[in-house]
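Subject: complex prediction, re-run

Hi both,

The earlier run crashed halfway through, so I resubmitted it with identical inputs.
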Amino acid sequence: MAASLSTLLDVHFLVPQADTKRNPFITIRQKPNNRRLNITCNSSKSSSDQSQTLFESPNPNSPSLSDQLKPLSSTTLSTTNDPHAQLLSKPKSIWINPTKPRRYVLSLQRQKRSHFSHNPDVRDFKRFARKLNDSDYSESSFMSVLEQIPYPVTRENALFILNSLKPWQKTHLFFKWIKTHKLFPLETIFYNITMKSLRFGRQFELIEELANEMVSNEIELDNITYSTIITCAKRCNKFNKAVEWFERMYKTGLMPDEVTYSAILDVYGKLGKVEEALTLYERGIASGWKPDPVTYSILAKMFGESGDYDGVRYVLQEMKALGVQPNVIVYNTLIEATGKAGKPGMARSLFEEMLDSGFTPDEKTLTAVVKVYGKARWSKDAMELWEKMRSNKWPMDFILYNTLLNMCADLGLEEEAERLFEDMKGSEHCRPDSWSYTAMLNIYGSGGKADKAMLLFDEMSERAIDLNVMGCTCLIQCLGKAKRIDDLVRVFDLSVNKGVKPDDRLCGSLLSVVSLCEQISDASKVLSCLQKANSKLVALVKLVEEEQTNFETLKSEFRDVIRNTVVDARRPFCNCLIDICRSRNLHGRAHELLYLGTFYGLYPDLHHRTADEWSLDVRSLSVGAANTALEEWLGTLAKFVQRNEALPELFSAHTGAGTHKFSQGLANAFASHVKGLAAPFRHSENRAGSFVANREDLVDWVQSRIPSAVSP
DNA sequence: CTAGGGTTAG
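This time it finished cleanly. Structure:
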């Protein structure tokens, strides 16, 4: 793929670069983040990441900036060879410099479609098409029905049938039938219609076969052919093929129109090649193209995928500059993109602007907005939105319902979720599915409502809705917290028997229950579940609990388990192991595990030091791990005090403010631990979720405890 | 899906 940019820029476009200096229209608009300066070949990173490449030496495979900016006149087609040369005389568009011949990367006129007329006998053919569609799948029975085709089989009738058939196999068979019977010459449109059907079946190989057949039979490939090929390749994730056919189009001298052009723009977007897409876009603009909303939807989606706020702003700015009005889809994409870029306020104003412009939001709009509000923890806005949805009778679908439920789970809105869930049960088209149940189990799990969770579990069996692995994880967490170990074992065994494949998160959940078990007998019941899912992890637990275990053995087994664990579950595993140690009074082992976790990079942001302040951030730690980390830290500080080394004015520990309704635990546990140690940390008044101590108090405290060491 | 491009869920 790395070659595409250079080929597009240097060979196939065969056009001079837009003169942005002389072009008053372009110069007023800024590319996001000065993108011009950091063109990279594989720009899948976000714009902020890309800034790192700003001063690096250029990739030898990618054209240098000056290469890209130099006029390509030496390699271009001459003006007179340009099939669209007449466009050069396009009268006084303000941004076209009339003294400078301009080359075009796309045709400003969309390919016209010839519409085929309906015959009087279309009714017969309609009936016959239905018969073919109802026929058996096999080639032989399709062909036997086909023998009864009404007459005359004119070009129009054949096109009508071709257009009506599905699935793709039947379209393809009928196409071959037309070909063998040679009733009339196969024009481009026959190929185009057939390819479209093949695209539904994602049959890229067959499409390519037809395209090559067109080339060898000298049947013209037009913009419709190319855009169909390109979008099929895209849907089959054959992006290199999409680019290849786009380049082939230029080679044959055919200009893409805006449909084909935006199709390839989307290919670059899907590849995360932001620079390339922008270059294409700008060259289109420089050709005098006024893109339609589809193009901006593609660009907005691309920026949304990388969470690029500057990019989203660029899209808005461009639309405004060119006077393109967004439609519902563009608004949907923009709202989604601003949400992903972490700008909920912007997303909300876009939504309001959309309503003010008289648009009715659809399911996708509302799903996007709900996600934004949930992520931003804007419960009030979310609930107001829900009321509006009901009173305006805006459309709902089950994805929107499930998104609302997930949002309630994130915000801890149990009653609201229950109301929604009841709504779903009473609805015709949005009955709760396994995702809905998972969201409810999540809510009950976080809220410690084991009874309600078990009722749902039973209800799922009655309704034959499968519990998925996440639902199982939530339920197990919930039952573990409620100390209902026998129910937990029953749920686990039933789920596994029904085909739930335990993943690392589920194992983490079981492990955390082990740390909560006060009775050895309970712990061993849970461990026997874990044994079936991850026996190595159980072996590690045994090793951790065994006082005789030497550190090197622990280290190598720990590394082994962590290496075979998905990244997201690694820190939770270590947290739980530490909690197990703390609950078994194995404090030394807990410190060893914290050391190993830090050593293997599971706690990368635990410590921060500036000249004025040293801080400890335990927000991603469990209670036991946080306490262990605090002890470790105080021990280190004590050594500093004893050695009379330079200390900052302020010390702080961050436990998080617990914005989540159910997540107050860490701060409370931390406070009581601090109290137990009589350490001089106090809740910070101006920083929620932080404990602070000043140097003087801390030094006094350490000295009062000397010579007894603070930490092991 | 009436020859071609864009949007929704842990």
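The beta strands of chain A are 607-609, 613-617, 650-654, 682-683, 690-694.

- K.
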